[in-house]
Automatic annotation (TrEMBL):
Record InterPro entries: Thioredoxin-like_sf, Thioredoxin_domain
Domain Thioredoxin as annotated: residue spans: 1-106
Keywords for the protein's UniProt record, in alphabetical order: Redox-active center
Lineage: Bacteria, Bacillati, Cyanobacteriota, Cyanophyceae, Nostocales
Listed SUPFAM superfamilies: Thioredoxin-like (SSF52833)
Keyword Kinase: no
Domain of life the protein comes from: Bacteria
Name of this chain's protein: Thioredoxin
UniProt source species: Aphanizomenon flos-aquae FACHB-1249
Amino acid sequence: MVLLVNETTFTKEVLESSVPVLVNFEAPWCGLCRIIHPLLSQFQTQCGNELKLVGVNADQNFKLSNTYRLKSLPTLLLIEKGIVKQKLEGFRSRDDLRSALEEIKLTYTSHQKIDIAEEVKSQESGVMR
Protein backbone atom coordinates (compact mmCIF):
# COMPACT_ATOMS: atom_id res chain seq x y z
CA MET A 1 0.00 0.00 0.00
CA VAL A 2 1.43 3.34 -1.06
CA LEU A 3 1.32 6.08 1.55
CA LEU A 4 -0.60 9.08 0.22
CA VAL A 5 0.77 12.45 1.26
CA ASN A 6 -0.43 15.99 0.74
CA GLU A 7 0.83 19.52 1.28
CA THR A 8 0.26 19.19 5.03
CA THR A 9 2.11 15.89 5.51
CA PHE A 10 4.77 16.25 2.80
CA THR A 11 7.44 17.84 4.99
CA LYS A 12 7.20 15.20 7.71
CA GLU A 13 6.80 12.14 5.46
CA VAL A 14 9.18 13.15 2.66
CA LEU A 15 11.55 16.01 3.44
CA GLU A 16 12.26 14.87 7.01
CA SER A 17 12.30 11.14 6.26
CA SER A 18 15.24 9.14 7.61
CA VAL A 19 15.26 7.04 4.42
CA PRO A 20 15.20 8.15 0.76
CA VAL A 21 11.69 8.68 -0.60
CA LEU A 22 10.38 8.05 -4.10
CA VAL A 23 7.49 10.47 -4.62
CA ASN A 24 4.98 9.53 -7.30
CA PHE A 25 3.07 12.58 -8.53
CA GLU A 26 -0.07 11.29 -10.22
CA ALA A 27 -3.73 12.11 -10.92
CA PRO A 28 -6.90 10.00 -11.11
CA TRP A 29 -7.40 10.87 -14.82
CA CYS A 30 -3.86 9.83 -15.79
CA GLY A 31 -3.88 6.50 -17.65
CA LEU A 32 -0.10 6.09 -17.57
CA CYS A 33 -0.18 6.60 -13.79
CA ARG A 34 -2.43 3.54 -13.47
CA ILE A 35 -0.23 1.52 -15.84
CA ILE A 36 2.96 2.08 -13.82
CA HIS A 37 1.31 1.46 -10.43
CA PRO A 38 2.06 -2.31 -10.41
CA LEU A 39 5.75 -1.63 -11.15
CA LEU A 40 5.90 0.87 -8.30
CA SER A 41 4.21 -1.57 -5.90
CA GLN A 42 6.72 -4.26 -6.84
CA PHE A 43 9.56 -1.76 -6.36
CA GLN A 44 8.27 -0.87 -2.89
CA THR A 45 8.11 -4.54 -1.90
CA GLN A 46 11.65 -5.19 -3.11
CA CYS A 47 13.11 -2.18 -1.29
CA GLY A 48 11.52 -2.94 2.06
CA ASN A 49 12.22 -0.31 4.70
CA GLU A 50 15.31 1.09 2.98
CA LEU A 51 13.30 3.28 0.61
CA LYS A 52 9.85 4.78 1.06
CA LEU A 53 7.32 5.17 -1.75
CA VAL A 54 4.64 7.84 -1.42
CA GLY A 55 1.94 9.10 -3.74
CA VAL A 56 0.82 12.69 -4.28
CA ASN A 57 -2.35 13.66 -6.13
CA ALA A 58 -0.95 16.49 -8.27
CA ASP A 59 -4.39 17.99 -8.91
CA GLN A 60 -5.20 18.30 -5.21
CA ASN A 61 -1.73 19.51 -4.20
CA PHE A 62 -1.13 22.36 -6.61
CA LYS A 63 1.54 24.05 -4.46
CA LEU A 64 3.68 20.89 -4.49
CA SER A 65 3.17 20.51 -8.23
CA ASN A 66 4.39 24.07 -8.75
CA THR A 67 7.25 23.78 -6.26
CA TYR A 68 8.69 20.78 -8.12
CA ARG A 69 7.85 22.23 -11.56
CA LEU A 70 5.94 19.24 -12.86
CA LYS A 71 5.68 19.19 -16.64
CA SER A 72 3.86 15.88 -17.05
CA LEU A 73 2.29 13.06 -15.11
CA PRO A 74 3.37 10.75 -13.78
CA THR A 75 6.53 12.33 -12.43
CA LEU A 76 8.71 10.52 -9.91
CA LEU A 77 11.09 12.37 -7.61
CA LEU A 78 13.72 10.64 -5.54
CA ILE A 79 14.24 12.81 -2.47
CA GLU A 80 16.96 12.17 0.09
CA LYS A 81 17.36 14.36 3.19
CA GLY A 82 15.09 16.97 1.63
CA ILE A 83 17.06 17.19 -1.63
CA VAL A 84 15.81 16.01 -5.03
CA LYS A 85 18.39 13.48 -6.19
CA GLN A 86 16.59 12.32 -9.32
CA LYS A 87 13.56 13.32 -11.40
CA LEU A 88 11.91 10.76 -13.66
CA GLU A 89 9.35 11.99 -16.16
CA GLY A 90 8.23 11.39 -19.71
CA PHE A 91 8.59 7.61 -19.68
CA ARG A 92 8.99 6.13 -23.14
CA SER A 93 8.14 2.60 -22.03
CA ARG A 94 7.67 0.32 -19.05
CA ASP A 95 11.19 -0.98 -19.63
CA ASP A 96 12.59 2.55 -19.27
CA LEU A 97 10.83 2.93 -15.95
CA ARG A 98 11.85 -0.56 -14.84
CA SER A 99 15.51 0.21 -15.61
CA ALA A 100 15.37 3.52 -13.73
CA LEU A 101 13.77 1.85 -10.70
CA GLU A 102 16.36 -0.94 -10.77
CA GLU A 103 19.16 1.63 -10.76
CA ILE A 104 17.59 3.43 -7.79
CA LYS A 105 17.14 0.14 -5.95
CA LEU A 106 20.80 -0.83 -6.45
CA THR A 107 21.99 2.60 -5.35
CA TYR A 108 19.82 2.98 -2.27
CA THR A 109 19.33 -0.53 -0.89
CA SER A 110 21.57 -3.29 0.35
CA HIS A 111 19.58 -6.09 -1.35
CA GLN A 112 22.33 -6.63 -3.90
CA LYS A 113 24.95 -6.84 -1.13
CA ILE A 114 22.79 -9.25 0.88
CA ASP A 115 22.31 -11.55 -2.11
CA ILE A 116 26.06 -11.65 -2.77
CA ALA A 117 26.83 -12.31 0.91
CA GLU A 118 24.33 -15.18 1.03
CA GLU A 119 25.79 -16.65 -2.14
CA VAL A 120 29.32 -16.55 -0.69
CA LYS A 121 28.08 -18.19 2.53
CA SER A 122 26.39 -21.01 0.65
CA GLN A 123 29.53 -21.59 -1.45
CA GLU A 124 31.73 -21.65 1.67
CA SER A 125 29.44 -24.10 3.45
CA GLY A 126 29.47 -26.32 0.37
CA VAL A 127 33.29 -26.33 0.29
CA MET A 128 33.57 -27.27 3.97
CA ARG A 129 31.48 -30.38 3.57
